[in-house]
């Protein structure tokens, strides 16, 4: 056996596996076990119901859109924070983490107060037909808010390691600005951007606290899937709730798998470029 | 031999003394709007108990949340000695899990509901949309705020009040009642998950023309947010909301708190307890206390859930269960 430089491989691996098992896998197994009590007919009735489909569409569709928006905004903010020096930069940098620290219910109430018809922004937007609070758009706003720091925080270290001399070299070799961005910067950033995207996506899919305040929660229109789960629980239908939860888990897993594959492909693409 | 007998007697004497002076912790699991009510009740009852049992140290803890959520927490193991919830169905659910007797509602007077409330309307100052009674809620252009009956106990009272009114109109029948309530929910732009949330949406966010609410919630909102901003409208007919209370036998037996738990609930029926309830805008059962506070509570004609719907279990299964009547409605779609 090859000698390792530091001792403790067995202990640390054992600890890591036990920890993952207790904290992550055990609750998920309990969920799947609870859900397995549901009959196939009941499952179909639950998952194929138009209301469930509408809720799943809003939760996953909204989360995808929100993660895309977070990707764009996060890239821009990360770039500005890393590349430029300006007064208040550190304060701005600290503010990025705020959505992490804020209890989601507080975030939801604050956003609702802002976008409600009598709110600071709502009173200007509403007359122009832009309804955000108590509409599907509100769900999106809350999801963008909670997912945004993930993209910035994952991108920052990579942006910092990105030396500007590479861009200067590209320019001296006659590349246009667009070419430098697309062929030099983007390939390096893309895998990390995808990681941030995946994190923001996962966060948005599971978000409950802030969304229910701003959504309006109308069935078929602005009702998210986690709220349906809460309603199942409210009827003491633990099995139905677990089944719906497992379904969400599976879709999330597929989405994250797709992002991982995309990431691998983009990394290879970056290596070919390099 | 002799020594061990002495030791035994000493132990018994100590045990008896311990039985007289006890450390008692009582957990009351209640629903959302009762925070202020039970804070007062706990203070008064603790003082009274302490006076009668000088050796005891009584601590009363309070837990508030959505009624259904609280019931679920108790089923899942929240060690409640007493539950004081928004509707009997939630305590039935706890009884179904064997934590208290199925006939719990017969153990205390008045359906185990020491105070009552009813469902009224809260409208903006001057009543700009002219809301006087239930038919006004479905006029074109009127927006109604009420929470989701699937997640809110209060919202279920609202739903049933509307249904009962429509049913009791001249020529009213089940089909007409259903049509009215279905139309009513088309006028609802936001379905909050709880009664407090709906009050906030209406009062703080300025959404909607009328809030359907518990009378105690409406009176309190008016008191706290300004009597100059809101008016209360009492409909021609409403439901008698009876929020029930019960000792959770199994938990109380484990904690050795049966006696104090029962005394706590009985205290709610005493003139002193009734007075506290009235001060917090709950209608007292006691005729003398009710007469004293008559000015605070307008006359309202009411029906009970047993009269019109045959009890909570039937109402729950028919209207609010999965695939029930409410699930067939399309709220917010004009």
Automatic annotation (TrEMBL), chain A:
Q: Gene3D superfamilies, alphabetically?
A: MetI-like
Q: Tell me the superkingdom of the source.
A: Bacteria
In the bilayer, the protein is annotated as: Multi-pass membrane protein
Q: Where in the cell is it found?
A: Cell membrane
Q: Which residues cross the membrane?
A: 12-33, 53-82, 94-116, 132-152, 181-202, 241-262
SUPFAM superfamilies, sorted? MetI-like
Would I find Membrane among this entry's keywords? Answer: yes
Q: Which UniProt keywords apply?
A: Membrane, Sulfate transport, Transmembrane, Transmembrane helix, Transport
What PROSITE patterns does this protein map onto? Answer: ABC_TM1
GO terms under cellular component: plasma membrane
User: Would the keyword Transport be found if you checked this record's keyword annotation?
Assistant: yes
**One Gene Ontology molecular-function label:** ABC-type sulfate transporter activity
Recorded hits in InterPro entries, A to Z, give:
CysT_permease, MetI-like, MetI-like_sf, Sulph_transpt2
Q: Which residues form the ABC transmembrane type-1 domain?
A: 56-263
Q: Which family does it belong to?
A: Belongs to the binding-protein-dependent transport system permease family. CysTW subfamily.
Q: Which NCBIfam families match?
A: 3a0106s02, permease_CysT
Its quaternary structure? The complex is composed of two ATP-binding proteins (CysA), two transmembrane proteins (CysT and CysW) and a solute-binding protein (CysP).
Main function: Part of the ABC transporter complex (TC 3.A.1.6.1) involved in sulfate/thiosulfate import.
Tell me the PANTHER family matching this sequence. SULFATE TRANSPORT SYSTEM PERMEASE PROTEIN, SULFATE TRANSPORT SYSTEM PERMEASE PROTEIN CYST
Protein name as annotated: Sulfate transport system permease protein CysT
High-level lineage: Bacteria, Pseudomonadati, Pseudomonadota, Gammaproteobacteria, Lysobacterales
UniProtKB/TrEMBL annotation, chain B:
Q: Where is the signal peptide?
A: 1-21
Q: InterPro entries this protein is in?
A: Sulphate/thiosulphate_BS, Thiosulph/SO4-bd
What Gene Ontology molecular function terms does this protein carry? Answer: molecular carrier activity; sulfur compound binding
A GO-annotated cellular component:
periplasmic space
Location in the cell: Periplasm
**Which keywords accompany this UniProt record?**
Periplasm, Signal, Transport
What GO biological process terms are annotated to this protein in UniProt?
sulfate transmembrane transport
Which Pfam family, any one, appears in the UniProt record?
A: SBP_bac_11
Q: Does the keyword DNA-binding apply?
A: no
- The domain of life for this entry's organism is Bacteria
Query: Gene3D superfamilies this protein is in?
Result: Periplasmic binding protein-like II
Q: Which family does it belong to?
A: Belongs to the prokaryotic sulfate-binding protein family.
Q: What is this protein called?
A: Sulfate transport system substrate-binding protein
- Origin organism is Fulvimonas soli
